[in-house]
Every structure is written in structure tokens, then in C-alpha cells.
């Protein structure tokens, strides 16, 4: 019996990465005493950029078998 990781759509992977990094950046900015509104906006912009980057460039390289 061979167990494999289930196939997850690249858009879902990009969304998960962006949410994780959003929380990391937002909480980190709050801990560094950045005002709440600025921390939220900067973290949202960074999360959107991360989402686009992972969505566009995050796929595995095709292999030739």
C-alpha cells in the first residue's frame, strides 16, 4: 500500500500561505508597537502579494519521465 499526499489545488495552497504570512506579519507588527491600522494595511498588502506570487510561481516544476 502506497500512501500519497492528497492533491491540493494551487489556489488553495496560495491562500493558506497568504493567511499564514498575514498572521505572522500582522502579529509581528503589533508586537513591535506599529499602530493597528498601519499594521493591518501593510499585512494585507503583503498577503495579497504573497498570494499572487505563490499562485503564479508556486507550482512544482514539470518532470519528464
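Sequence proposed for the structure above (65 residues):
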Amino acid at each position: 500500500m502506497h500512501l500519497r499526499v492528497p492533491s491540493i489545488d494551487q489556489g488553495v495552497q496560495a491562500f493558506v500561505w497568504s493567511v499564514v504570512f498575514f498572521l505572522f506579519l500582522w502579529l509581528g507588527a503589533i508586537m513591535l508597537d506599529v499602530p493597528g491600522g498601519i499594521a493591518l494595511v501593510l499585512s494585507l498588502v503583503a498577503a495579497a502579494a504573497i498570494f499572487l506570487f505563490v499562485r503564479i510561481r508556486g507550482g512544482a516544476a514539470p518532470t519528464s519521465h
